[in-house]
Sequence to fold (230 residues):
Amino acid sequence: MGSFLKLFRGATSEQRAATDAAPRISRRSSGLAELWRSLSSHEGQCVLDLGPTSPANIKHLTDMGHKVYSEDLLLASRDPGLRALDAEGTSVLDEKRFLAENLAYDPHSFDTVLFWDVADFMEEALVKPVVARVWSMMKPGGFVLAFFHTRDAGADAPCFRFHMSGPDTLDAQPLTVASEAHNGKKAARVPAYRLQRVFNNRNIENLFRDFSSLKFFLARDNVREVLVTR
Fold:
């Protein structure tokens, strides 16, 4: 499996520029600190980043001697071609087609998966199938780093692009898009994704029930970090 960076569908240059210009929030990450020790001590890992692409992450990981693969799952899930009408005329997402077109890797391909806060913002139909696919793609003993917003974060909790800035530090950028302009006024920036649900510890344990172990870290910014071992 050679190094490759999957092209993201639907992201315009204006959207990327707007996100790049968004303010970054520096935060300490205990989950990253523990994962970093594994990344630093075992060269030649295959790492899959499932969030919006980050040049900082690619540089840090390749400098450590790892191969980096990227798939922006939230952006991919917005492909209009994945939607169809069910028997009741409701628009639904075809999870089987989504998995046929995304995360198409051989079993046991990856040592590390950066899941970030994707599960909180992903459509319900995709969450469990995607986690099951991640399980199959990972090598036994590999790690998943995932973040989950707590209820205290609120319904308007932003979805972030996470940039590694050090062994235990992340820069988080809110993902936004332009809203519709009215009366000639400049369009405001609004969250690109809406929080779909809040997972409690039991929900998270159930989501990763096929994995061998989970370790929880509670951050100060109402984010629960989880390091999952395959």
